[in-house]
Write a structure and sequence with these properties.
The protein is α/β, with parallel strands linked by helices. It is built from nine helices and ten strands. Strands 6-7-8-3-9-10 form a six-stranded mixed β-sheet, with helices on both faces. Helix 3 packs across helix 4, helix 3 packs parallel to helix 5 and helix 4 packs across helix 5. It binds adenosine-5'-triphosphate (ATP) and magnesium ion.
Length: about 260
């Protein structure tokens, strides 16, 4: 795959380790050990691993919310430190401002960046439309369903056109039907504008049908024990073939499940 080398490197995670120091009476925990990952522009990486293996910890270090104890994370060549609008984070439970309307929540980033009012209005409209919330611009988050709240959170992340979007089990709290429609939405957005995405999930099928690369982590202290390029997300819309029943899908799925289940 010579093209791989021509893509722009966005984030580099090198020999990353993380130890929670056990302050405030908590136990000392070695959460991550020697994690290495290269993320290129337009990648859609899905990370899987057993519960408690350090996925959220890794995402928090990549987001700049948490400081590593060893190794480094760089984005576009500079060390990742603190929150930055170039890295959007979407959590399992969307953190919308309850006193702001949906449109005002989505407008938050551009407002902080002091973008001109006309531009903000146009962008908010465009991103609300993208996630199918154009008719809910003026309502408050509590008037929305869980799936709609997550769509608003997605629009609020996308509107900043971040260099990278980090999502931590974004659809984990949704019912199966809503989850599937959110997955379809994210797949469409990714195919249309190719943002760089790092998504954590505990759902193997979600990982395999969304990402173009899947990484599997070991039990704690989390390390990456498998990294594989996949193309199922492209085959889902390219043909009527139900990829989940294809032989290659079943075999990657099996491999991941045996790795994640191993050592439990
Ligand atoms: N703030 C903290 N202080 C101390 N230990 C922590 C802290 N946060 C997480 N841990 C520990 O670090 C380990 C990894 O936690 P983390 O939340 O990263 O796992 P995870 O892979 O996201 O799990 P899950 O799939 O259940 O969300 C766990 O053993 C957890 O108890
Ligand atoms: Mg987690």
């Amino acid at each position: 795959m010579p093209l791989e080398n021509e893509k722009k490197l966005i984030m580099k995670v090198e020999h990353l380790s993380l130890q929670y120091d056990g302050s405030n009476g908590a136990a000392e925990v070695e959460a991550l050990s020697d994690v290495n990952l290269d993320i290129y522009e337009g990648d859609f990486i899905c990370a899987l691993g057993p519960s408690g293996c350090g996925k959220t910890s890794l995402l928090n270090v990549m987001a700049g919310l948490l400081k590593a104890t060893g190794g480094s994370v760089t984005m576009n060549g500079s060390p990742v430190r603190g929150l930055n609008p170039d890295r959007a984070v979407v959590f399992q439970n969307p953190t919308l401002y309850p006193w702001l309307s949906v449109a005002e929540n989505v407008a938050f980033g551009p407002r902080v960046q002091s973008a001109p009012a006309g531009e903000i209005k146009e962008k908010v409209q465009r991103y609300l439309q993208l996630v199918g919330l154009e008719d809910f611009a003026d309502v408050k988050p509590y008037e929305l369903s869980g799936g709609m709240r997550q769509r608003a959170a997605l629009a609020r992340a996308l509107i900043n056109e971040p260099g990278m979007i980090l999502l931590d089990e974004p659809f984990g709290a949704l019912d199966a039907f809503t989850r599937e429609s959110m997955q379809a939405l994210l797949r469409r957005i990714w195919k249309e504008s190719r943002p760089t995405i790092f998504l954590i999930t505990h759902d193997v099928d979600e990982a395999l049908t969304l990402g173009d690369r899947v990484v599997t982590m070991s039990v704690r202290p989390g390390r990456i024990i498998m990294e594989e390029d996949i193309d199922f997300t492209f085959r889902i819309s390219d043909s009527d073939e139900d990829v989940r029943y294809s032989q290659d899908y079943i075999s990657v799925r099996k491999k991941i499940l045996s790795l994640v289940g191993h050592g439990r």
